[in-house]
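pipeline/complex-builder :: batch 7 item 3
reading input block
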Amino acid sequence: MFAKILIANRGEIALRILRACRTLGVEAVVAYSEADRESLPVQLADEAICIGPADARRSYLSAPAVISAALVTGCDAVHPGYGFLSEDDSFAEVVRAHELTFIGPPPPVLERFGNKESTRRLLGAQGLPTIPGSDGMLRDDLHALEEAERIGYPVLIKPSAGGGGKGMRMVRSPRELESAVKVARSEAKAAFGDDSLYLERWLEDNRHVEVQVAVDRYGRGVHLGERDCTTQRRHQKILEESPTMALSDAARNELCERALRAVIAAGYENVGTLEFLVDADGNVYFIEINCRIQVEHPVTEMRTGLDLVALQIRIAAGEPIGLTQSDIEFRGHAIEFRINAEDPAHEFRPSAGLVERYLVPGGPGVRMDSHLYAGYEVPPFYDSLLGKLIVWGEDRETAIARAKGALDELLVDGLATNVSIHQALLTSEAFLEGRMTTNLLDRVGSAAFVAAAARA
Amino acid sequence: MASSRQDDPGAAPRTTESRAADHAAIDRLAEELVPALAAKLGATGLGEIEVREGGWRLRVRRPAGGENYGRRAGDRPSRSQPGHAGHGHAPGALEGHRAVRPPAGVAHSTNGASHAAPDAAARSAEPPGRRRGDPDSHRALATSPAVGIYQPRPDMAPGTRVRAGDRIGIVDMLGVPQDVVAPADGVIGASLAESGEAVEYGQELVVVELTGSPAATASGSASGGAPDAERGVDERAGPA
């Protein structure tokens, strides 16, 4: 096991990693930017070190600053959390070059799974169904037109680099395709420094289901079930639950087992998430793998009773996983609500500022992972996630009932939050009947959705 | 925005070099400091921020009735490139931040100092006499441009006269030296960090007694460091 871990992230995930370190009895150092001097992980840490200014490019995204901080504080490992440097294989490589351990997949594994298109082919070859798409990267306009014709319109133009739905474009005709490819190329170049694009068939009404896996260095692994992340606003997940309503129990189980077999065969290591789209007919397609701990990992923790961050750290330290599939028990239903500093009354504009009062909900099956406290000033420089409310119940109905109570109890005074969209979801027929699709909120309009729920 | 050179331009003939240096300084202030200050202005809701860096004074003012609407979380306070290598960091930008909202009474260290309780009261508990960028102060503080190992310049002993921007030491970040620069014209005073010590970004490293202040005059004429008693007087004489 490691002696001391540098936590190279902020907000709720920095706190979550700090807690896992304490559970494991490992010392931790929280690396923070000047804007996060008064943040909760910094306050609670035994040791904290300022690595740069508010600008993330000179702090949380600066590999030299992070590694220098790890070295001067005597750490032997770096936990990148999610976002920032978490899936940067060159960062992982530099970490290793300084004789530190990157907590995540080892650099060669990250590199192998770093490119979405080649990962799709790699895991496709291991038996995972993939969305019909272009044969490799688009060479030129003619190639794009030929491939789109073969796949069938509408098609989705996707950048090879990047994630989070950035830079994707859907086109319905050859006429649209040419100009959209041009724009997508320049956008991808600007955003990711890589203008490689590929095409995929556009699935009109789809759902997003992902499988959590954990594999140790010795090729032994388990799947930890699936999460349904269909409820999205502008390609950003806002609510995740498990089990999914999109598949039967048998189909869910088969998907999880296939996913685990495929990643072990492809040489994956550490915790990871395989994302799938499920179409209206129940067909499942692999889209990508996330080589990091994810925002929504507590959903899985609530159902399995495992500490995924501690497991991730143990695997990175070279420990055998110590679990077989038969050890994993799935209990009840869990739902996570992302509490964002966004104002539903004003197009979900991000908000920042002083948290005047903060009350955390409680009761059976209720968990709040958040870095907020009364008197904390949310800085305007980073993403809008304030925390995650996770509820568990023996069944979905119980979980939903507890969630309604918990969302009513939650109080964040001083900032606008997106709590009302969660309350609207919990009373909407589409959600209650398990008929959400990834585009539903955007099609209806999130503000209209909230307003409709308020009238009902 | 207003920017002005504080010292009298008529005092010394302007050479091509000094003009070029001024242009470079203006470019750097405009590129690094102004966006940072503008972002800070937006974030704090203050009407105006003024900072001094080196011989420069810079004031950023919010337009009347201007609101901070439409700001996105992804917005960055600065357009400058990532600070991986040893290009000019702006200690003045730091001072600007501190002057507007000084660090709360939270102790930070690289070896596990305790942190203050997270209550709003801590916010106003500013240690006296440590306010930087304060126009009435007689001292300025050189801060660390990076996280790494501090090495003072051996020839920068207490009592040495420095100009704003002079390199008075380095912080080694993964083998790349990052310059520690004098924040203002003055005389090197007390050291706040040891040679070879691990330091964090923004850590206070060296006191610079400002030229013309009683402390600087006293320590400038003597060969020793700035007398502590005299600094104590300055602190007490600070703004109430």
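note: Chain A touches chain B through 48 residues (CB under 8 Å).
queue -> next item
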